[in-house]
Amino acid sequence: MAAITTGTDAAATRAQPRGGSIRRNLLVSRILTYIALGGAVLLILFPVYWMLITSLKLPREIYRMPSLWPQVFTLENYRILLQDKEFLLPIRNSMIVAFAVTIISVLISSFAAYSMVRFRYRFKGLIGRLILFAYLTPTSLLFIPLSILMAQLGLGNSLHGLILVYLCFSLPLSTWLLQGYFRGVPRELEEQGMIDGLTRFGALLRIVLPLSAPGIAAVSIFTFTHAWNELLLALVLTTSESVRTAPLALNYLITSDVLPWGPLMAGATLSSVPLMILYFIAQRFMVQGMTAGSVKG
Amino acid sequence: MTDQIAAAGAAGRKRWLNGNRRLSLFAYLLVLPVVLLILGLVAYPFLYAIYVSFTDRVIGNDGQWVGLRNFQYIAGTATFQSAIWNTIVIVVVTGVLKLGIGLGLALLVNQHIPGRGIFRSLLMLPWAMPAFVAFLTWRVMYQPIGGGINLILTQTGLYPHVVDWLGQRSTAMPSVIAASVWRGFPFWFISILAALQSIPNELYEAARVDGANAWQRFWNVTWPGILPVVIVTTLLSSIWTANAFEHVWLLTQGGPSDATMVFPVLAYFGMQTQRIGEAAAVSVAMLPVLAILVIFATSLMQKDDE
To answer: Where are its TM segments located (chain A) (predicted)?
Structure first.
C-alpha cells in the first residue's frame, strides 16, 4: 500500500506540464486511497459485526442455515448467559479487580513518576532501569513463581490476591507512562504554587496532578484495559467459580459447552462494551492532551 | 529550589543542608512503594522462576537442585521443538505483516484527505477490543459451522468447500497469524502515524526542490524519520508476541498436534501436569533471547527519555 501512495505522487509530479493530467492523477490517487482504506475498514469491522450478529441469532441460524443477516433477532443468548451462566458475577469481579488495580497503581505510580521526574538522587538511574525492565518482563515468565508465592501468602483463589498480582504489570506500565506526562508540566507553575504557600506534596496534589489530568486519564484507561483483559494469571491463580473474571468465565464456556457460540458472543459483546466506552473517552482525552501540548510548544 | 539537590550533589556531600536532606528523603519516600512492590512482584518471582527451573519441584514437594536436567529433558521433546519453531514463525511473520500494514495505512491516513479522522478511529478499533474478545470472536469466525469466513467464501464462490481452519495442521498457523495481525497492527499504525506527523514538512519541500521523486522522498526523508519508532516498535512487539498467551490459547490451545504450540501455552500445560520444575524450565528457556531484546529495547527507550 505504501507503493500506491508514492507511486501516484510520482505520477503527479512527473505530469507537471499539463494541469488536467495532474488533476486526473490526483483523482486516481484519491480513489485508490479510499479503496485501500475502505477495504481495510471492512476487514476490521467484519469480525466485530460477526460478534454482534452471532450474539443476536437463534441457534438454528448460527449452526444450520448461517446467513449474513439474521431473519429473527433474539436476546435469548443474553438470557442464557446472564441467567443460566450467571455472567453478571464475573463481570462484577472483573470490575472490582480492574478498578482496584487502576486506582492503586495510578495513585502510587504518580508519586513515583513525580519523584523520578523532579528530583535527582542516588540510584535514580537504577530505579528507572528497574521499572523499565519490569515493564518488559512478560507475565508468561512470572505466572509460575507468582502462583507459588500467592499460595504461600494464602492469597490464592481470591480477588485480593488477583489485585495484588496484577500490580506486577500495572505499576511499571503506569509509572513509565506517567513520567512522560509529568515531564510536560512546567516547573515554574509548581514553584509559583510553593511561593504561594503550598508544600511540595501539596504542589504535587494541587498543581501537577490536575495539570496532567488528560495524561492520568489515558494512563488509567491503559491500566484498566490491561487488568480487564488479563487471562493467564487469572487462569492460574483462581480455581472457584465465585472469583472468576470475565475472560476466565468465557474461557470456561468454550471448554464446557458444545457449540456455545451464541452465549459466547453475547459475553464477548458485554465484556467489550465497557472498554469501547472507555476507548472513546480516552480518545477525547488524548486529543485534548495532544492539542494542549501543541499550544504549549 | 528544585535544583538545590542537584547543586548540592555537584558541590559535594559535606555541604548538604538539612532542607536538602529532607527533600531527598521525600523523593525516596515517594518512589518507595513502587520500588518495593516491583521488587516483590517482579524481581523476586523472576529470580525464583530461574531457581525453580533448576529443581525437580512438583506440587507439594519443593524438590532438589538437579542442574540442567529439566532443560536437557524438555529440549529432547518434540513439543518443545515445535514451540521454538512456531514462536519464531509467529514473531517474524506477524512482525513483517504488522509493519507492512501499519506503515501502509499510516501513509494513507497521513495524506490530507477528507474523513481521515474517521478512518484513523476505525483503524484503531481492534486495539480497543479486549484481546480475549478478539480471539474468541476469531475462533467463532473460523468455525466450519457458524463461522463467518466459510460463509463468505462459499457464498461468494471464492472457495466452494467448507474449511476447518483451526482444526487442520496446514491452516491452523496461518489462521492464528491472521487473527494476531488483525488485533496487533493498530499499535504499529498509531506509532508510525505519530512518527510521520512529527516529520517537518520543510524536509519534503526541500527534497521536492532538489528534484527527488516519490520513492527517493520516501527513502531519504520518510524512512529515516520513522526508523527509530519502527525499531522500538519491532522490539516491543517481538517481546510481547513471543510471550503472548491468549491468541494461541483461545484459538487452538496449541493444536492440532502441536502445530501452533508456543512457549507460554506449553509452560501452562506443564504447570497443569504439576511438574513445576519442568514448566519453569520451559518459560526460562526463552530467557536468553528475551534478555537480548529487552536490553536492546531499554537502552533505546532510556536514550529517548533523556
So the answer is: 31-52, 95-114, 126-151, 163-182, 203-228, 261-282
Q: The complex's ipTM? A: 0.86
Q: Is residue A71 part of a domain?
A: no
Per-residue confidence (pLDDT) for residue A230, from 0 to 100: 93
For residue A211, count other CB atoms closer than 10 A to its CB: 18
Of the listed ranges A293-297, B197-201, B244-248, the least confidently predicted one is: A293-297
Within 34-73 of A, beta carbons closer than 8 Å to B belong to 34, 36-37, 40-41, 43-48, 50-51, 54, 62-63, 66-68
For residues A36 and A120, membership in a common domain is answered with no
| A122 and A190 both lie in a single domain | yes
The grid coordinates of residue A139 equal 507475565
Are A36 and A96 part of one and the same domain? no
More confident residue, A274 or A222: A222
Nearest to B174 by CA among B187, B162, B165, B186: B165
Per-chain mean pLDDT for chain B: 86
The CA-atom distances, in angstroms, between B126 and each of A195, B130, B179 are 48, 8, 10
Largest CA distance in chain B: 83
Given a cut of 60, whether residue A262 has pLDDT beyond it is yes
Helix and strand numbers (H, E) in chain B are 17, 0
Q: Is residue B36 classed exposed, middle or buried when 0-12, 13-18 and 19+ CB atoms within 10 A define those classes?
A: exposed
List all residues 6 or more positions away from B286 whose beta carbon is below 8 Å from its beta carbon: B87, B242, B243, B263
Question: Does residue A246 share a domain with residue A120?
Answer: yes
Shortest distance between the Cα of B170 and any Cα of chain A, in A, equals: 22
Within this chain, do residues A215 and A253 fall inside the same structural domain, yes or no? yes
Cβ neighbours of residue A76 closer than 8 Å, sequence gap 6 or more: A58, A262
- Quote the percentage of chain B above a pLDDT of 90: 36
> Are the beta carbons of A136 and B294 separated by less than 8 Å?
yes
Q: Which of B20, B31, B187 to mutate to test the interface with A (most CBs of A within 10 A)?
A: B31
Is the same domain home to A86 and A182? yes
d(CA A116, CA A119): 6
- Indicate the residue of A68, A108, A225 with minimum beta-carbon distance to B34: A108
For B22-56, the pLDDT digits (tens) are 778 888 899 999 999 999 999 999 999 999 999 88
Q: Domain count for chain A, please give it.
A: 2
Residue whose C-alpha cell reads 480492574 in the numeric block: A98
A47 and A118, same domain (yes or no): no
Task: Specify whether A43 is located in the same domain as A116.
Answer: no
Is A167 in contact with B217 (Cβ distance < 8 A)?
no
pLDDT at A218: 82
Per-residue confidence (pLDDT) for residue A286, from 0 to 100:
56
> Which range marks the domain in which residue A257 is found?
79-296
Sign of CA dihedral B125, B130, B135, B139: negative
Residue A9 has pLDDT above 70, yes or no: no
CATH code, domain carrying A197: 1.10.3720.10
Kindly give, in sequence order, each residue whose CB lies less than 8 Å from that of residue B193, ignoring residues fewer than 6 positions away.
B106, B109, B110, B120
Instruction: For residue A214, say if its preceding peptide bond is cis, omega within 30 degrees of 0.
Output: no
Strand, helix or coil for residue A35: helix
In this structure, what C-alpha cell is assigned to residue B143? 468455525
* Domains annotated on chain B, with CATH: 13-53 (no CATH), 77-305 (1.10.3720.10)
Please tell me whether residue A57 adopts helix, strand or coil conformation: coil
